[in-house]
Amino acid sequence: MKFDGWRGVLLVNETAVELWSRHGTNLSDRFPDLIAIGGEQLEAGIYDGEIVVWRDGACDWDALLQRSGSPTRVADQARRLPASFVVFDLLALHGQDVRPLSWTDRPPLLELTATEWRPPLQLAPHTLDRTEALTWMDGSLAATGIEGVVVKGAGSPYRAGDRQWLKVRTYETSEVIVGAVTGTLDQPTSIIVGRYTATGELVIVGRTGPPTTDQAAVLAAALTPTEDHPWPARIGAGHFGGSPVDLLRVELTVVEVAGDAAQQAGRWRHQLRLIRLRPDLTTAQVDRHHPPAGSGR
């Protein structure tokens, strides 16, 4: 399973425990709770996994982001928002490099070390049964922050820097409000979508990738440019990263999109996929934007 968190590696030996990000950043000072649990429960080795924060039975990305706040608040954050470490692979055990072993051989070793583990240390579910893996993709786990599955070759060793696995995301469909496009109306490069808050403000909740040729033709016929709009003609880089984005604002229209479980403050972090226009729905019938408590607007 793919959990909605940060990739991390726990290094454990007889004298120290360290937590590193996949980009080579030492996170030990940020997660003293995981350092402590690693020293208590893990045998000497290198453990590849995901750092998550569970709240109300789901991976909470916004809570995880709070754990990267002010260094002076680390102890308070660890107490209020305790992290968990979900282990999905074993790279070394008691000084022996096990990366050359195949994927079918590494999990049994990992399971042997995990027999006495207790939360917040967890073993990620894995299977060689395709039918079982497909049940994890039926969408029922999306609400818990399970983004999908990671598919690995049964006979493949672990090769650092060589991506030999495939991430397959679980997608769910939702109705949203088209407020603008980027590019031109005839050839949009993306669709910017929003939802109303409880106070009646239309906020941006995501963007799609480029529509297909057929979808672009349908959109061009259905969307009408307007200057009378709650959004500015240019939005800042904070919405999607990178540079500011110029918008071609349009009269509000409802569409159906597909998105994964990864959200931040009620907004989709990853690109959405346009499914179809929904002329049968009014904007008032679209679900409201409800960011998690304490996450901001």
From TrEMBL:
The UniProt record lists the keyword rRNA processing: no
InterPro entries registered for this protein in UniProt: ATP-dep_DNA_ligase (IPR050191), DNA_ligase_ATP-dep_cent (IPR012310), NA-bd_OB-fold (IPR012340)
Location of the ATP-dependent DNA ligase family profile domain: 76-201
GO molecular function term, any single one: DNA ligase (ATP) activity
Example GO biological process: DNA recombination
PANTHER family assigned: DNA LIGASE 1, DNA LIGASE 1/3 FAMILY MEMBER
Protein's UniProt name: ATP dependent DNA ligase domain-containing protein
